[in-house]
Amino acid sequence: MPPDAREQLIAQLQAAIGTRYVLHRHEELMLYEYDASTLDLAAPEIVVVPASTAEVVRVVDIAAAAGWPVVARGAGTGLSGGSVPAAGGVVVSLARLNQVLKIDPVARRAVVQPGVVNVDLSAAAAPYQLHFAPDPSSQRSSTVGGNAAENAGGPHCLKYGITTNHILGATVVLADGSVAELGNAAPDMPGYDLLGAFVGSEGTLGIATELTVRLTPDPEAVRTFLAIYDDPPDAPGRGLDAAADTVSAIIAAGIVPAALEMLEGLGVRLVEEYIHAGYPTDARAVLLIEIDGMHEELAAQAEQIAAICQAHGARELRAARDETQRQQLWAGRKGALAAAARLKPHYHIQDGVVPRSRLTEVLRFTEEVARRYELHVVNIFHAGDGNLHPLLVFDLREPRARERAIAASEEILHACVAAGGTISGEHGIGLEKRDYMRWIFSADDIAAMLELRAVFDPAGVMNPCKQLPSGASCADIKQARGAARALAAGAWI
Amino acid sequence: MTKPDTLARALATVVAPEYVQADPVACAPYQIHGIVPGCTIAPASLEELAAVLRLAQEHGAAVAPWGGGTQQLLGHPPARLDLVVRTERLSQVLEHEPADLTISVGAGLPIGALRDYLAPHRQMLPLDPPLPARATIGGLLATAADGPRRLGYGTLRELLIGITVVEAGGRISRGGGMVVKNVSGFDMMKLYHGSFGTLAIIAAANFKLLPLPRAATTLLCRFGQPGAAFAMLDALHQTQLTPTAAEYLNQAALMELGFEGSCALALRAEGLPAAVERHMTDMAALAERHSASGTERLNHEQEAELWLRIADLSQATELPANTVLVKLVGQPATIETTVAQVEAFAQTHGGQALMSARALNGIVYARLPVPTQPQALAALPGLQWAAGTAPDLPYWGTEPAGFTLMQRIKAEFDPAGQLNPGRFIPGI
Prior knowledge:
heterodimer, A: alpha+beta, Uridine Diphospho-n-acetylenolpyruvylglucosamine Reductase, domain 2, Uridine Diphospho-n-acetylenolpyruvylglucosamine Reductase, domain 3, Alpha-Beta Plaits, 18 strands, globular, B: alpha+beta, 4 domains, eight-stranded antiparallel β-sheet, 24% strand
């Protein structure tokens, strides 16, 4: 039987990087059709697992020459469909590029391959009292390359900034197979900030095969608190207002906490029942407040925080006594997704941001929307920077659950935008929110972004159908390649 | 070359005529490296700015954006210059939500005016560049300016959350937004930051703000020789102290500031009083251990004044005759060598170097005598730019990594090469 285009491509890729590292059987490919956002599935036609920059170049050359999309993938923990191969094509797994190449404790930086797991980097830096500051909740699985592609956040970004502030340089394979060095070990190089544009471009500008990252000194001391808020029987909802007002008051007092997280309503109970983090199950809302810095600073800040919580009617402010208790409090926060799964098996999580002063009204709106669509909503989020994570939970076996979840989250995001906010704070636009980009950006804004994309990748090889809305739909791209494939197959007749 | 009169007449249809000037005398203050533009204009709104750039394109006019004019000695002389677009009337605070710690301002707002505006709210945009009364937000963004406090707060790159620009043909586009955390779309803010007015004119910018620290104190540690000062910095770097500025000042810099001595470190701590106090104690002890010849603690007014003057040491606006200002960049670990090389270079060229170094950031600013062969400056380690009135300076250092991509970006955003032609890295 004459080989069709796909089989030809498989043969070429096998010759380029070794048979073992080219996956093409149906059951192998199924593992790469989703990320953690779960609602959008699309299988690649081939998956490759290269082990070096040179191998990534060979893969990109081969795929691009054949007109196939190339989609980079780290651990697949993304929450916006960024690594889902929407138009099919070749998925480049960076799992074998997983080495910490160098740690320079004096310059406080590390050189790593993109497949290094976030916590593994911090573990490698720990002997020098340094760590990698971005700490997405997925940090036990997510990779530094994926964090950079998505410009990932995490609770401690409130004080330390999101991933872009921690990436100093990148070696990037571009769509034409060339290798570009972006950024520089030294700050402020004259010229355009290509690295700044690359971080957060969701794999659409190229594939990073090596990254230089900033390491942050461990603070001298850390203190973690749990502030608990109740609803008085005569004033339902006051506990939520009080918690949100506390958030604003802490920031307004001039304190920049290391992290300032909120869990409210249903979320508190679900987390506690599953993780036993020590949250009171009857609370309307709890705040997880962490401060770090010098001992002197913390003592003064702790007093201030206690006074603010009390003034806003907190039932109680508990301080973690030791590191074990601190880890327990954080386990509750970071395990929220898993906890919610006990209620219903499926979820859809959103990532809108609102100005801090609009938190309560938007939180209330999420509850109203959930009620209207007969879904449950769990709000567990980064209150300090106004980054909401309404988690809608449902069971896909129930009628129209998927449609209801999508419609509800659309309404919630709309409310975030109407409140002066935006549609993604840290999860990325990906596939999921591509069409909502027009809510916040004009046609001209998007045109400028598309021009930048065209500079890096004029043919749209890298992760097509992501992040930016464009004229061509993914179906068109797939169809066009289908035609090319048929033609190629025909050529063998 | 566009005819100034024709261009001015056209421009007067979109901006009030008193803000359009084609008279050579009126245009003279807007010369760049001695080249006087045919016209200058000061649009009053985003829409007017867009209309101006649309007309400029129709007339094929070469445009230079102008904020406070404090950094026009940076960069090559313009290859062409028809029109200077001044942002002075785009100087409003457009939106400020004190509770949200965010602000949106016009590009023409001087950073000093912004500082004054924010002070009653007990908030700040923590950038301390030279000449704050004149330097505008737009100019500071376009030149990726810094100040001594970047050690504690970074530069505008870290604080910028949204931007509005007008591209060469008059297209208005925006990036980011008005919230402190945002990954929606490409990070266009990074693209325009440091783009030297060659991709678009920045019209407005949004920032996240910080609360003013409750206390700030400075320790001035003097040393007999640089080695001791750098040894102390190394030791400081290994502690968990978090000074917000650590500036190395050489003899000439100290003299300019009215101090005696061969070199010094100015160390600043900001934050809660107890933490500032601890910094002062610990840093004074470190200084003593590294044989500082004197340690002086500056009170509130003294220290605020001192930092304004330290920031001004790296101004590239009014340089004494026959001097050049260079910016050199390396690693904190290489600064000591760089400083020594600069001193030696100045001596070789018959003069003295005036140096202020953001030592823990790896950045040195040095004012030097212009060598007989100005290109000799290119041999200085990590030369990033050289600014001055002398001809034939190595205006920009070596070609940056990714240069072909940069050329392609320029071609995409300003295909006719109308924005600041010839001024940036050759080829852009």
